Amino acid sequence: MIDLRSDTVTRPTGAMLHAMMSAEVGDDVYREDPTVRRLEERVAALLGKEVALFVPTGTMANQLALMLHARPGEEVIAGKSAHFVNYESGAGGAWAGVQFAVTPRELFTAGEARALIRAPAYWLPKTRLIGVENTHNMGGGRIFPQADVLAIGAVAKEHGLGFHLDGARLWNAAVATGLSEAELAAPFDTVSVCFSKGLGAPVGSALAGSAERMENALRLRKMLGGGMRQVGVLAAAARYGLEHHRDRLAEDHDAASRLGRALQGLSGVTVAPVETNIVVAEVADAERVVGAAKAQGVVFSAISPRAVRMVTHLDVSGATFDKAIERVVAGFREAGHV
After folding, report:
1. Are residues 173 and 187 in the same domain?
2. First to last CA, the chain
3. Preceding peptide of 135 cis, ω within 30°
4. Average pLDDT, integer, range 90-99
5. Are 160 and 277 contained in the same domain?
6. Residue 97 Rama label (left phi>0; alpha psi -120 to 50; beta)
7. Mean pLDDT confidence for 49-60
8. Is 39 a domain residue?
9. What is the mean pLDDT of residues 187-216?
10. 23 and 78: one domain?
11. Same domain flag for 53 and 160
């Protein structure tokens, strides 16, 4: 079975496993794990931030950011279908106690963000933060235009608001645009990045920002159960992916483009623009397409009654990916899209 459900389904390579097994470790709650510290320093430098903090999941990284920027009862502006609004089990309301004002589009403009900022009246919630997702997962792996990011950041600064980047797939955006991660992250106060998606690590994310914010984030991480001990074995996998799997993301982007082109000619199928490693296609019956494709030996996800998502990654390449395209197309045809 070829798995295109997500770039999180990858298995550690032999070289990554070796890095994990040979990692120098210590107690990270005491901040004594040298492999973790080296990873955090490397991530902070790549993102152009003072300090980075290693955390188990992207959800925790985003939730720490919400807790840093806002108090219970306050409001966060986010794009339509943003991950930290819709796909983190309601954590923003449960842990940070915030509510969300959502823009009408995934990739929104400064004007759309400005329109959601609350007036300063005591009977209204206070707007505290604007969040951007780049690349946008449910937007089809789309890259948030940097000109819009800069304009939104200016609005946030004008109104004294925090500015957070959910950069789980920021590595993909950097490879696709040619801009460095630091350039893409520069306008933001806090940035989350993930190692277990395109980089192929088994677990791990990071949150980066100012030294003061990350000192507060360290305490909040402990409160949420994210204080880990000899976690250098995981940080080593993240560091390996960071150093060895970033440049190859271009291969995933090329593979996704090929898959998108193969589907575009089928009747009743509309493929969203493919910019990175995610292919989203509108179909007549998503569950029927998913079932037909599974019978052909390839799995992917229905993300709505009429949309499916396929994600390319390092475990499916070369001849295997050629076979994946054949199976996906066969599944679509079996479901009536000929």
Report:
1. yes
2. 23
3. yes
4. 96
5. no
6. left
7. 98
8. yes
9. 97
10. yes
11. yes
